[in-house]
Design goal:
The chain is an alpha+beta fold. It is built from three helices and four strands, in the order H-H-E-E-E-E-H. The protein has a domain of about 45 residues.
């Protein structure tokens, strides 16, 4: 049986504000963030997911395999 995962979405016009609120907009724009799965540099054009991680907030690129890996990982993580 598969675990149900809640996926939250952000309207494109609200994305930069959300990223700013999370404290990652400047690093994203400056090219300082990498995909947590494949290591590819992530920017506003190829941002796939934003997710909680040990360091606060992680990102993945928009590659289907990377998005699938993150969503699967989140589904398998027990919620507190």
């Amino acid at each position: 049986m598969r675990k149900r995962v809640e996926v939250k979405a952000v309207y494109e016009q609200d994305l930069e504000q959300v990223l700013s609120n999370l404290g990652i907009l400047d690093d994203l724009v400056a090219g300082k963030l990498n995909c947590a799965v494949c290591g590819r540099q992530v920017d506003l054009d190829n941002l796939g997911t934003i997710f909680p991680d040990d360091d606060g907030v992680g990102v993945s690129c928009d590659n289907d395999m990377c998005i699938r890996t993150i969503t699967t990982r989140e589904a398998e993580t027990p919620s507190g």
